[in-house]
Design a protein that fits this description.
- The chain is built from 5 helices and 17 strands.
- The chain has about 260 residues and is α+β, with helices and mostly antiparallel strands.
- It has one domain: Creatinase/methionine aminopeptidase superfamily (Creatine Amidinohydrolase, Alpha-Beta Complex).
- The strands form 5 sheets. It has a 5-stranded antiparallel beta sheet. Strands 1, 2, 4 and 5 form a 4-stranded antiparallel beta sheet that branches. Strands 3-14-13 form a 3-stranded antiparallel beta sheet, with no helix packed on it.
- Helix 1 runs antiparallel to helix 2 and helix 3 packs antiparallel against helix 4.
- The chain binds magnesium ion.
Length: about 260
């Protein structure tokens, strides 16, 4: 079911989004070689709760952690644990905040040790995935269609020669509506046709989340039942924001401090 949010609901989601953005910023500053991903998970939970939110992923669908940490060939849904980060690792951190029964969802990809710790091709993968997120967000305009978002994301990936992760063996990975549930209709595919799909109206809120690889578009799920890895072992990046459609344009509820200005 597609739900449009009231101004009151949007205000709650905006507050949840600010908590989530602040926590992502704290996590970004904490990422360093030698740190275990489980430490990031503990930090994320403490920082979310300290700001009055609840870890949105914890307990949902039986998921036991606050964040998902997807390193290198992991595309999404990697489990935090004792694995320690190494300089040059490509780390996606995906997490959500639940505040007053409303969800927000955002993911960032960082190069452990800083961008210079990875070769230019890897930095470009991370940058292109982030640009694709903002290209998709720019299409969230009243009167447009959700397919416009999908097409814009894929266009950035195709231009760079990246694997645009969308569907594989009859399964789909991508964005989604969000509100009183983490996953609401519609699915927001990372590849699609402009001018097709749901018409965009004020009050709709979406989690937009491109995933690109340095190789192919296929994936498989590991025996843990969660971790999605690229089928060919290629490195993957993943960026996500929760965005509301408003009369005056897209409102990015989870933008990192300074991010909207920096990427506009
Ligand atoms: Mg999501």
């Amino acid at each position: 079911m597609v739900t449009r949010k009231s101004p009151q609901e949007l205000a709650v989601m905006a507050a949840a989004g600010r908590v989530l953005a602040d926590v992502h910023q704290v996590l970004a500053e904490a990422v360093r070689p030698g740190l275990a991903t489980a430490e990031l998970d503990r930090l994320a939970e403490a920082e979310i709760r300290r700001r009055g939110g609840l870890p949105a992923f914890k307990g949902l669908y039986g998921y036991p952690h606050t964040i998902m940490t997807s390193v290198n060939d992991r595309i999404v849904h990697g489990l935090p644990g004792p694995r320690t980060l190494r300089a040059g690792d490509v780390l996606s951190i995906d997490t959500g905040v639940l505040l007053e029964d409303h969800y927000t969802d955002a993911a960032c990809t960082w190069i452990v040790g800083g961008p210079e710790a990875a070769p230019p091709a890897v930095r470009d993968l991370v940058d292109a995935t982030r640009r694709a997120l903002w290209a998709g967000i720019a299409q969230l305009r009243v009167g447009g269609r959700i397919g416009d978002v999908s097409a814009a994301i894929a266009a950035v990936g195709d231009a760079g020669g990246y694997g645009v992760v969308a569907d594989h063996d009859g399964n789909e990975l991508g964005g989604h509506g969000i509100g009183r549930r983490l996953h609401e209709d519609p699915m927001v595919r990372n590849r699609g046709r402009a001018g097709r799909g749901l018409r965009l109206r004020p009050g709709l809120v979406f989690a937009i989340e491109p995933m690109f690889t340095l190789g192919g578009t296929g994936w498989r799920t590991l025996a843990d039942g969660w971790t999605v890895v690229s089928a060919d072992g290629s490195l993957a990046a993943h960026w996500e924001h929760t965005v509301a459609v408003a009369e005056d344009g897209p409102r990015v509820l989870t933008a990192l401090p300074g991010e909207a200005a920096a990427t506009a």
